[in-house]
Amino acid sequence: MIELKDVRKVFPARGQAGEVVAVDGVSLAVDRGEFAGVVGPSGSGKSTLVRLVNLLERPTSGSVTVDGQLLTELPDEQVRQARRSIGMVFQHFELLDSRTAAGNVEHPLELSGVGRAERRRRAGELLDLVGLGDRAGARPAQLSGGQKQRVAIARALAVRPTVLLCDEATSALDQASTTGVLELLRRVRDELGLTVLLITHEMSVVKAVCDSAVLLDRGRVVDGGRLADVLTRPGSPLGDALLPAPVADAGAAHDGALLRVTVADRTPETLVLQTLIGELGLAVEIAGGSVETVAGGRYGRLLLRVTGGVAGLDDAVHRLRAGGILVERVAATAEVAR
User: Fold this and answer.
1) Which domain holds residue 187?
2) In this structure, which long-range contacts are made by residues 276-281, counting pairs with CB atoms below 8 Å and at least 24 apart in sequence?
3) What is the Cα–Cα distance from 245 to 332, expressed in whole angstroms?
4) Whole-angstrom Cα distance, residue 202 to residue 224?
5) Which end of the chain is more exposed for a tag (fewer CB within 10 A), N or C?
6) Residue 337 within any structural domain of the chain
7) DSSP annotation of 201
8) What is the rounded distance in angstroms from the CA atom of residue 209 to the CA atom of residue 179?
9) Sequential DSSP letters for 256-292
């Protein structure tokens, strides 16, 4: 549905000779119906990347394909036509202050030549969908931040896109509004069968709604994949950012060894402990850990201290890994994160 191949975007440096490489050889693919995230710190190239997807910025090199169309080979007029299948939701809403909520939703339909009666019907339908059917006559100044973003989502859906791009869509919202907007985006994706690409710097947003994600840094993809996979992949930077690993104090392993174990719904921590203690007879303590919900699944990372003789430790690690459980031998560091 969305495919970028070796996309690069270079801008001239402001006020000086040279150039700035904003996106540097990025390749990614988002399947039809997928909710995908692009996450990274400020300045990593996220916002430039999303503008390359709908060709608001043309890449310096590389190709962009959306919904079967190779956009980078189309002339500007055909690109404008292709953009009608790509909805866009912005960080700061970009609503027209002079129009009501319904008027803002109608605006793209008006630009597309849709008649007044159909515009009104479609706007009412979409405002009902986003939970603002009773606020159709309100102007942006009369709406909360969360309500403004709901209107912006309705507007993005007006021309029936197949792809929805969200550029920091929750960054200007409080926590309660963020939760509501993310739930709405997930529901809209499910009900309308959209493909969603969400740009964010917040790992909590990725954990709440995304099926997959890529981690961007200095214009390059440093890690990515389905969240269920990256969370159980050894050494995954994205997995570690989504579910930070517990660490142990310098004296934690003086009389034994430390294991970091990642568990999921299908491999509960009780199974890990049963294998280590019940079947192999090892002495095990939980030195730290955390459990979170990611992409609708329960994941946890435990730091286990194995003491009292660890002759069977290698066998234990082998058996757990053979069962599909991520187990890593770790060194003690400065403190325990509980």
Assistant:
1) 2-237
2) 276/304, 276/306, 276/316, 276/320, 280/312, 280/315, 280/316, 280/319, 281/312
3) 12
4) 15
5) C
6) no
7) S
8) 10
9) EEEEEEEEETTS-HHHHHIIIIIIT--EEEEEEEEEE
Q: How many domains does the chain have?
A: 2
Last residue of a domain, one of 217, 237, 257: 237
Residue pair 336/288 in contact by the 8 Å Cβ criterion: yes
User: Which residues have C-beta within 8 Å of that of residue 134, sequence separation ≥ 6?
Assistant: none
Note whether 300 and 325 are same-domain residues.
yes
pLDDT tens, position by position, 161-205? 999 999 999 988 999 999 999 999 999 999 999 999 999 999 999
For residue 335, name the pLDDT band (cuts at 50, 70, 90).
very low
Q: Are residues 53 and 114 in the same domain?
A: yes
Name which of 202, 107, 103 is nearest 143 in CA terms.
103
Q: How many CB atoms lie within 10 A of CB 30?
A: 23
Query: Residue 167 is inside which H or E element, if any?
Result: strand 163-167
